[in-house]
Design a protein that fits this description.
By secondary structure, this protein is mainly beta.
Length: 815
């Protein structure tokens, strides 16, 4: 430890010691007797509001800060809500820039209130803070240093004049947890708290007036997430394991109560169900710090699972598959709430497993812990989504304060301050989910050795990509951005991944969310090892009624009007990134999108079983299948029609993985590139050197007169020799040759994984012709509801050959 670190440690420990002696500690309770039962927080706001943070003062006034988005710009807004529900004026906290997100509010004393948040500045990602002293806002101050890209901030009051901020910072390809403390008007130097190994995310802090001060975080190491922590009041104390080390444990929260220190977290288990659907099993867990270390809390039977998060999150697979849709709340977040008798673990679930994404309703569920034993769960509140606890998170007179929202058409959230009562609850009921079995990923039997092909003097390697994925930056999807990049690389075994979060689906993608997604893409990219490319999903809907205006908001506002249909695109940028062109901000004009994508050096891919081709050069491929279904099987005329009209596009397959399974959602694209770099991958996609599968890692090498699939060629004789060499992960059953939309020949397999054939066509008539192969291997993947595609399917499609015949005058002859 260097001299500066030692001095910082000495000052920090003296600060904690001083805090022990201060009598003016934060009130342990808040007078809730005069609080209104329900008060609207962001009434009068003209922005899309999200990610609130609230603190309730001793007189019942609640201070709420949140992220506000409008027209490609974020702001941090704040409002005081009086005890009786009267809202104060809207106040703008952020001052410069357009990328701000996820504030935390901290009240130090009667005069000083801080707001801490993350922002992208010209020099990179910084943690910022702004003080409001006696109602007057001071200048914004940077808290993290320029040498780190800092995200995930949290903050806590230590005493009347002391606050500690924690965050995750990226430096030299490693994420570290750092803290920095404010003492009066002086900021102490930052301290690094996490280990040198692994990558650390999502810190949480808890302070007790006796001086005990804990920090926990989740850390990815040796292919698993685990929750760890250390006692900051004991100097550089040992880092302690809190969660099991052989499971995926993340998203911790932490709380001191009169009964001790408790931590809660989300635990994930990879599972497989039905005919081969891959998913995750989510549970919540709680541990208490004892003299012997951390001990998990159990129920009377010794079961450490505090909650199974199934309804509205995980599909039912047996006895019949029942899918679930999206949700505009927090389905996997644990919250801790102190009360006089013990502590509550709270979480949120979708009220109706089959409920609509566009009309969400959620339950706030609680499990009380009495004498360190889990009690049966109950439902504490219903009818809203995105529940958050106000600080201090404690029950007073049986009541506590929560924030929750209603979502309205047009991308509007109204948050309510709710006065909830732990004694007023309804029974918790949830069906038992059957048929899911634990598994270890990746499934080794589904992996294949790296293949390569020779084209002329060039050698191309086969790389695997899923270029239409989602994480929790999409309004209705799940999974942390870092978590799913690791999943794509280590469990999905992908070479290339693109997280294409929706620019507007019911609610908008904020500028903070878009930029944060691109930040993680660059953070995880390692050229020649793994590529995570920036991008997003253009989520346009266009009218099916000819007289309707393209710019009519009714096209994309639920319930949809004008017989509108999706015209989505996966927008993929090179590592330098590009702008997010939200369709509703440019009057739904795809020409505006194509112009900006071309300028940034990007490409686009069509999506879904409905779209209108734009014909622009940036539009290089069509998505044939995804985790939602086999589109080529559903509407072959759509894809064939594009080709018949002169379209010269690649065939791709992308998971569209709202289910947290990039690379294992039943759709993959095989790309032939010189090397695993963004330049080579983009060049391959523009040249259409790729093929599509519904999840299995086929090898496909298709040629027409020696030219590789995707290429355009010319023949004067009208003769074409088509060759196919393929290898399946299971025995290949057949290969079907399609010419101009018609199946002209079926070749049977020989009960082996390897397949090779040649087909000669003579005297094709003049004009443009296109050919592709549909390859079928053993064990059909059945059609399942929702996005429940089998991870490793049975189909592959070569990208078409485009053959121009000049001079031939005779009917074609083919065997």
């Amino acid at each position: 430890m260097n001299t500066q670190s030692v001095l910082s440690m000495v000052v920090f420990l003296s600060l904690i010691s001083t805090a022990r002696e201060l009598s003016a500690v934060e009130p342990s309770s808040v007078d809730l007797s005069k609080l209104s039962a329900d008060a609207v927080v962001n009434t009068g706001s003209s922005t899309y509001d999200s990610h609130p943070s609230a603190i309730t003062l001793s007189d019942g006034t609640t201070c709420v800060a949140w992220t506000a988005f409008k027209e490609s710009r974020d702001q941090i807004l704040l409002r005081f809500i009086a005890a009786n529900g009267t809202p104060g004026p809207l106040q703008t906290v952020s001052q410069e820039g357009s990328v701000h997100g996820h504030p935390t509010v901290v009240s130090l004393n009667e005069k000083d209130l801080w707001v801490i948040w993350s922002a992208k500045r010209p020099e990179g990602w910084r943690i910022l803070g702004r003080l409001c002293r006696s109602g007057v806002w001071q200048k914004t101050v940077p808290i993290s240093g320029k040498q780190y890209q800092a995200i995930h901030p949290t903050a806590i009051r230590v005493s009347e004049h002391v606050m500690t901020v924690a965050w995750s910072g990226l430096q030299q390809s490693r994420f570290r947890i750092q803290t920095r403390s404010l003492q009066g008007i002086r900021w102490l130097p930052p301290r690094t708290e996490s280990e040198t190994e692994g990558n650390a995310f999502r810190p949480a802090l808890a302070f007790k007036p006796d001086g005990n001060f804990w920090l926990v975080w989740d850390q990815y190491d040796q292919n698993h997430y685990r929750v760890v922590g250390r006692n900051l009041s004991a100097g550089q104390s040992l880092i302690e394991a809190i969660s099991p080390t052989d499971m995926h444990c993340l998203q911790p929260t932490l709380l001191y109560t009169d009964q001790g220190l408790y931590a809660a977290w989300l635990q994930k288990q990879d599972v497989v169900g039905g005919p081969g659907v891959v998913s995750q099993w989510h549970t919540l867990h709680v541990a208490k710090r004892t003299d012997d270390g951390w001990r998990q809390i159990t129920d009377a039977a010794g079961n450490p699972v505090a909650a199974e998060l199934t309804q509205g999150l995980v599909a039912q697979i047996e006895p019949q598959p029942v899918a679930t849709s999206g949700y505009l709340g927090r389905r996997t977040t644990s919250m801790l709430l102190a009360d006089e008798k013990g502590i509550w673990l709270l979480w949120e679930r979708k009220s109706d497993h089959r409920g609509s994404t566009a009309q969400p309703r959620g339950d706030l569920v609680g499990c009380q812990i009495l004498q360190d034993q889990l009690q049966p769960a109950v439902v504490l509140a219903q009818g809203k989504v995105d529940y958050h606890l106000a600080h201090p998170a404690q029950v007073s007179g049986g009541k506590f304060i929560a924030l929750a929202s209603n979502v309205y058409p047009g991308g509007r959230r109204l948050y309510h301050r709710l006065l909830c009562d732990v004694n007023q609850h309804t029974p918790f009921q949830q069906a038992e989910w059957q048929g899911w079995r634990p598994t270890e990923l990746p499934l080794q039997q589904e992996l294949t050795e790296r293949q390569q092909i020779q084209v002329g003097e060039k050698t191309y390697q086969l790389y695997w990509a899923d270029m239409h994925c989602h994480n929790n930056l999409s309004s209705d999807a799940e999974g942390e951005p870092d978590e799913l990049n690791y999943y794509a690389r280590d469990r999905g075994a992908l070479d290339v991944v693109v997280f294409t979060n929706n620019d507007f689906y019911i609610v908008p993608l904020t500028q903070y969310e878009y930029e944060l997604g691109n930040f993680f893409a660059n953070a995880f990219t390692r050229p020649k090892q793994f590529l995570s490319l920036p991008g997003y999903e253009w989520t346009s809907r266009i009218p099916g009624v000819k007289t309707a205006q393209l710019s009519d908001p009714g096209n994309w506002t639920h319930p949809y009007k004008n017989r509108s249909y999706p015209n989505h695109r996966s927008v993929i940028y090179p590592p330098a990134g590009g702008p997010v062109i939200r369709f509703m901000e440019v009057e739904n004009d795809i020409n505006r999108l194509n112009y900006e994508v071309e300028k940034a050096g990007g490409i686009t891919l069509t999506q879904h079983p409905a779209f209108k081709p734009s014909g622009h050069p940036v539009e290089v491929g069509m998505e044939l299948t995804s985790g939602w279904g086999n589109y080529m099987q559903q509407v072959p005329q759509l894809f064939h029609g594009v080709l018949n009209q002169g379209g010269q596009l690649a065939f791709v397959a992308c998971g569209d993985s709202h289910r947290r399974a990039p690379g294992l959602s039943g759709a993959l694209t095989g790309i032939y590139a010189e090397e695993l770099t963004a330049e080579s991958i983009f060049a391959a996609l523009r040249k259409r050197r790729c093929f599509a599968t519904n999840g299995s890692r086929f090898f496909v090498d298709s040629r027409a007169n020696g030219t590789l699939m995707g290429e355009a060629s010319t023949t004067e004789t009208g003769d074409v020799e088509l060759t196919l060499q393929a290898t399946g992960t299971r025995p290949i059953v057949r290969a079907v040759l399609i010419h101009n939309g018609r199946a002209i020949k079926t070749f049977e397999g020989k009960d082996t994984k390897d397949f090779k054939t040649t087909h000669q066509i003579e005297n094709l008539p003049p004009g443009r012709h296109w050919f592709y192969w549909r390859i079928v291997q053993d064990k059909d993947a059945p059609a399942l509801p929702g996005n429940l595609m089998v991870a490793h399917g049975h189909l592959a499609w070569s990208t078409p050959h485009y053959v121009n015949v000049v001079g031939s005058k005779h009917p074609s002859k083919s065997d």
